[in-house]
């Protein structure tokens, strides 16, 4: 990857090569013209036989300019610099004399245009200023802007030949050679490039910014369209006393200047707005990022606090459950001893009280066992595998069917239901759901318990359905809470931990569980498993 310094050096090398090429082409055009004048082949000096040939003095000066500009940005000895400076001073003096020749006839019979003389004087002065004065932004901008004026002058000369109306000096037309106009344009481009990429002209037209890219498209379009319009107008109209070249060139320069100003101001406005929006968006995004980071940190802190609290609660539940076992065993044991040793001395009411104490103690022991199981679930490590739910359900149904052979039970289990999950935990889910359905269908003449996949719901949603007593959906929010009961313990015994255990397991497996029911019309428990 190129560094900024390497890229800048590459651009400078390209500019130097362009300036050298301008010098070579200018010198070649001038030497060809000189050859034509010496040999009598005037077409070499005039491009076409009916055109004005380049005068000898102009050819000599253009060739000198070409040689000087060829080495303009390259290292040179002090001797070369002195010679070039002397030549430039001599050319500048000659140019001034050519201008004065129009008024005082200094060069009798000279065909050189005073306009070209003025160009010689100005261009040699620019070259001297560029070489003598220390480099600076102001001097480079002055030289480059003057170079643009000279470029427009050369373009006007070329345009004069295209539209067939040579430039006027006084009342008589004083034509300038076409190849002279081309040399003027080339040398103007060379001196502009010699001012470096930071000068105002190159920044406007040759930079990599959006305004320069737009200018490079608009300005050539303006030049081309007005030039073609001038040619069309000249071919179909004959307005005497009108110099189409000057009018067209003036129009082109004016429209180009206006377009440059409009584009520059528009692009700067757009860039300023874009920069402002970018800075605002950057600040906005920075604030959002800070808020997100702060939010993430707060979430992480709250998650850690919740995790620590859960661990403390689980540890407390586990410890309390174990600590309660000892006094419960004592109560149950002493109740049994009291019954065995003094049952003959107690009346029926006393025996009933002792039996009630033992039953409640055993119920409390069952609650503690369920609490321990629930706390174990939170600390258990998940072991994923392919689990055949249909096979698990069939095994549970077979076990429940043998609890009370007198009950009429029908299990409808859909075959082939396979998922990826923890086999032990999924068995806990199905066991609790089936046992829940088994318990609440106890009053039915024939209990029906179904297990299958609900194909009408989105995704894989499994269900356990029964025809039991059901429950009121108004209390569905309490259904999966620990120790929450929807029916009296005397009617349907239990600890109220089973469904809480089911929800804890489903949550661990990244799933969801919910229920739908109506009183005395059975209940259906749905669950899905998104963990893969």
Per-chain topology:
Blueprint: H1 4-39, H2 43-46, H3 56-70, H4 78-104, H5 114-132, H6 137-163, E1 168-169, E2 172-173, H7 178-194, H8 200-205, H9 210-236, H10 244-342, H11 348-379, E3 384-388, H12 389-401, E4 409-413, E5 418-422, H13 423-440, E6 447-454, E7 461-466, H14 498-508, E8 512-517, E9 523-528
Structure, described:
- α1 (about 5-40) packs antiparallel against α3 (about 55-70) and α10 (about 245-340) runs antiparallel to α11 (about 350-380).
- The radius of gyration is 51 Å and the shape is rod-shaped.
- Helix content is about 65%, strand content about 10%.
- It is built from 14 helices and nine strands.
- A hairpin with a 2-residue loop joins β1 (about 170) and β2.
- The strands form three sheets. The protein has a five-stranded mixed beta sheet, covered by helices on one side.
- Among the domains are: about 5-205, no CATH class; about 380-530, Histidine kinase-like ATPase, C-terminal domain (Heat Shock Protein 90, 2-Layer Sandwich).
- Mean pLDDT is about 75; it is low at about 170 and about 235-240.
